[in-house]
Design brief:
The chain has helices at residues 2-8, 13-64, 71-77, 103-108, 167-207, 220-266, 271-299, 309-323, 345-363, 417-427; strands spanning 84-89, 129-136, 139-145, 151-157, 305-308, 331-334, 340-343, 366-373, 376-382, 431-436, 442-448. With 450 residues, it is α+β, with helices and mostly antiparallel strands. Bound molecules: adenosine-5'-diphosphate (ADP) and magnesium ion (MG).
Length: 450
């Protein structure tokens, strides 16, 4: 029961507001129309009772003007409503032990008890005797004696009150409800649109710090929220820009002392020490160059566009195969021919290039698989290398962090590859994580939202 209610309860703000308003309005309308119907009911009953007693006395008059022997036949021919029973008898239906007509029914039927008033009309047409009694909660028995003998017995029954039994009631209720519901749905959707816009803008900002600002228009609260959001976005942009600039400045300024150190190293006597010193300096220069390149790329905001990610991934693999033809047969792609995803193509190529490069460098193979996921995609890259110790799976994303075994000339990277890849993917609203495979080797999983 509660799970059914939970299923019927709408998920959206607009849906919930509309539902509450529509239900409330229907309740108010139902109540209003019911009050109106009960009001009308009194009038309706009075009119029905008057009509009934009018028909009863009309019948009496029709019979009393007939010769006595024709009265039974005339009564049989009379066309009577279903709530008026009449018969021509020798005895009255009304007995002395029957309860008197209650005053409200007497008033409704225009009988003024006791004694019952004679029906209106000329004296000669009046009954010789008239008796009345209550025959039920809304029923009256009336017995009128003809001067020539015999009784006209009548039973007058008020129809049961049916306050809702009006076509107009239902039609009015339905028409008002439908009109109100349409109006409410329209208004609520309009009112909650800014909330959806704000959510969409936050989502865009998560993927692209340079996403366009929200228009600061509309109702005051909405305009204020949009202005606050735009302020926050520009603060984030400035923060990112400041950091990037600082990184570039530090990298640049470190070059001069390194050059001086190199000059001093050239003057060293001990050749072994000199060789080591120069190697360390070369490594430092490489790190700084990589840092500067990273900072420069980050600052150059490439626009996002719909791109065929499948083609892009295959290009990365082809270029890797061209660079290392001896590993070409260890490089494989599996996935759809084409898959369009909105992204920054150069940055994404760089991120995938770093991951594929690592797989080849440390794992001697690169098997990339691509799978659509919603409007985005999931990419996995597997290799046959030693993998990474569990404790270091996150650590290697740190700048310049390298596993000891790979610190040799042959695989000489700078330790920024994974840092850059993660930075690019997170700027797309995505993520990259490393997992050791069951049978050895590393599995890199990249997820990209649409
Ligand atoms: N596929 C892989 N298999 C094993 N180790 C890896 C793999 N990819 C990365 N690593 C480890 O993570 C470290 C950091 O990688 P990265 O940031 O790309 O720097 P770099 O490749 O320049 O050393 C690497 O030095 C290596 O020790
Ligand atoms: Mg690398």
């Amino acid at each position: 029961m509660s799970s059914l209610l939970a299923r019927l309860w709408p998920a959206t703000l607009a849906g919930r507001t509309a539902l509450v308003l529509i239900l409330g309005l229907m309740a108010v309308q139902g109540l209003g129309l019911t009050i109106h119907a009960f009001d009308r009911l009194e009038l309706q009953r009075a009119a029905e009772a008057r009509d009934l007693s009018f028909r009863a006395f009309a019948l009496w008059r029709a019979l009393v003007t007939q010769p006595p022997e024709r009265r039974a036949a005339a009564l049989a021919e009379a066309d009577l409503p279903p709530n008026l029973l009449a018969s021509f008898d020798r005895e009255p239906w009304v007995r002395p032990d029957m309860p008197p007509v209650p005053p409200h029914l007497g008033r409704l039927f225009r009988l003024d008890p006791p004694p019952p008033a004679p029906p209106p009309g000329p004296r000669r047409l009046r009954p010789a005797e008239s008796l009345s009694a209550a025959a039920g909660p809304a029923e009256v028995a009336l017995s009128l004696r003809f001067a020539e003998g015999g009784w006209l017995n009548l039973r007058l029954r008020l129809p049961a009150p049916r306050p809702w039994h009006s076509d107009r009631f239902l039609a009015a209720f339905a028409a008002m409800s439908v009109m109100a519901a349409l109006l409410i749905l329209w208004a609520v959707r309009r009112l909650t649109r800014p909330v959806r816009d704000l959510a969409a803008a936050a989502e865009r900002l998560g993927r692209d710090v340079n996403a366009p600002a929200l228009p600061e228009t509309g109702p005051r609260e909405v305009a204020q929220a949009a202005a606050a959001f735009n302020g926050m976005a520009s603060n984030i942009r400035r923060f990112v820009a400041d950091r990037t600039q600082m990184l570039a400045a530090i990298g640049h300024d470190l070059r001069t002392p390194i050059t001086r150190l190199r000059l001093r190293a050239e003057l060293m006597e001990d050749e072994e020490q000199q060789r080591r010193m120069l190697a360390d300096l070369a490594e430092m220069e490489a790190m700084i160059a990589a840092t500067l390149a990273f900072a420069r790329d980050d600052a150059a905001a490439e626009p996002a566009a719909p791109v065929d990610l499948a083609a892009l991934a295959r290009t990365v693999l082809d270029e890797a195969a061209d660079a290392q033809p001896e590993l070409a047969e260890k490089i494989a792609y599996s996935g759809p021919e084409h898959l369009t995803v909105t992204l920054r193509p150069l940055a994404m190529k760089r991120a995938l290039g770093n991951l594929v490069g690592n797989a080849l460098k440390y794992g001697g193979a690169a098997r990339l698989s691509l799978e659509p996921r919603g409007a985005g995609a999931v990419i996995a890259i597997e290799d046959d290398g030693p993998g990474i110790p569990e404790a270091a799976l996150e650590e290697v994303f740190q700048p310049f962090r390298r596993i000891e075994g790979s610190r040799n000339r042959e695989t000489g990277g700078t330790g920024l590859g994974l840092t850059i890849a993660r930075s690019i993917l997170r700027a797309h609203g995505g993520e990259v994580s490393l997992h050791n495979r069951e049978g050895g080797g590393l599995r890199v999983v990249v997820s990209l939202p649409g």
